[in-house]
Amino acid sequence: MKKLGITFIFLVLIYIQAFTQSGYTPAEENLKNREWFQDAKFGMFIHWGVYSVMAGGGDYGIAEWIMNEKQIPIKAYENLANFFNPVAFDAAEWVAAAKAAGMKYITITSKHHDGFAMFDSKVSDWDIVERTPYGKDVLRMLKEECDRQGIKLFFYHSQLDWHHPDYYPRGRTGQGYTGRPESGNWGRYIDYMNAQLTELLTNYGDIGGIWFDGMWDQWDADWQLDKTYALIHKLQPGALIGSNHHKMPYPGEDFQMFERDLPGENTMGFNQGGISELPLEMCETMNGSWGYNIKDRRFKSTKELIQTMVKAAGYGANFLLNNGPMPNGKLQPENVDTLKVIGKWLGKYGETYYGTTRGPVSPRSWGATTRRGNTVYVHIMDLPDEYVFLPELRQKIESVKLFEDQSNLKYSQNNMGTIITVPFVKRNDIDTIVVINLKE
Ligand code: FHN
Question: What are the tens digits of pLDDT across the range 97-109?
């Protein structure tokens, strides 16, 4: 009898594992896409929505959050859609800018926290086709262009919603000011979210994946991740799921992301999780805003961005660099210029970046290492001495050269580690790359 009971529990467990994401086994195409993702390394993040019309309202640090920050009730906020007419939007231009930068994929906001769908949704009329004078599905236009130019498209999707009445109980944000009744049906909200995700996963061909954001709005809510993740993996087994909950990944997620912090760091104060074995991605802004902010001219230098990108690669993490397009549909010209410079850098040094994994020495104050097979790339960005010390490499060194001119560098390897001479005269202001070839 006891044996039967145990068998029954075992069968139930197998059943649960098979029909939820708790026992998630990624499909073959999912694993292949993870590999592709890790090799691709560099993507463009796009935050675009009706909020871009308000351009931050004259405050730093506000753009896509303006509804909540300025406590704009839904009725008033909905007017923004009437002014959103991005007639200068040219998907081909955006994708070309991403390609020129050396980016291999684009992740765009399909719906941000204001709940506005940037696509033709049949389960809501709070969308670009029904509410704006523009009236076109920009996600479709972008996807078609991505397919033409060989770029993968991912959809950012906000789980938290300041507009939908059924997003109730409310979380930390989108409270009373929105004008929603203090009631709602949470289960219906999850169904609505899943219905929009179904649209995104069935109407736009193969997509790269879904980039979730917003669970941090309320940890106690019943997010029903198993249901949502199983749905996505059923509709497109190859689509990668990631969630910006700032914690260790949950079952069913295929990659882990870090917001404006290198993996393991927490300068932002919310990246509390550790580093998982899943593919990693760090997202970063070009200035201090995600969406378009007219006042924020504090653009990061290309040097800073390239160095962050390379340091992220030293952790094995992709770099998802944000653009907040203007309400007319154009990318900010300053950003386009920056993208070109990064693209030029990658054109020259991409071999030390694309298709690499994290190197044998974890990132240090002087830089980072990346690796492909028996080749290790040492990226030196801030080294006050003429020598760099690398702890045990585990393999004997065959040669050490400077990437730039292929000249041999002096080195000495013993069981404590390796010291390489990197002459000051050969230094590059952004990244001096040393190539170590290891013996089999
Ligand atoms: O609240 C959002 C924010 O607007 C932006 O989308 C970033 C991108 O990583 N994520 C959230 C904050 O964690």
Answer: 999 999 999 999 9
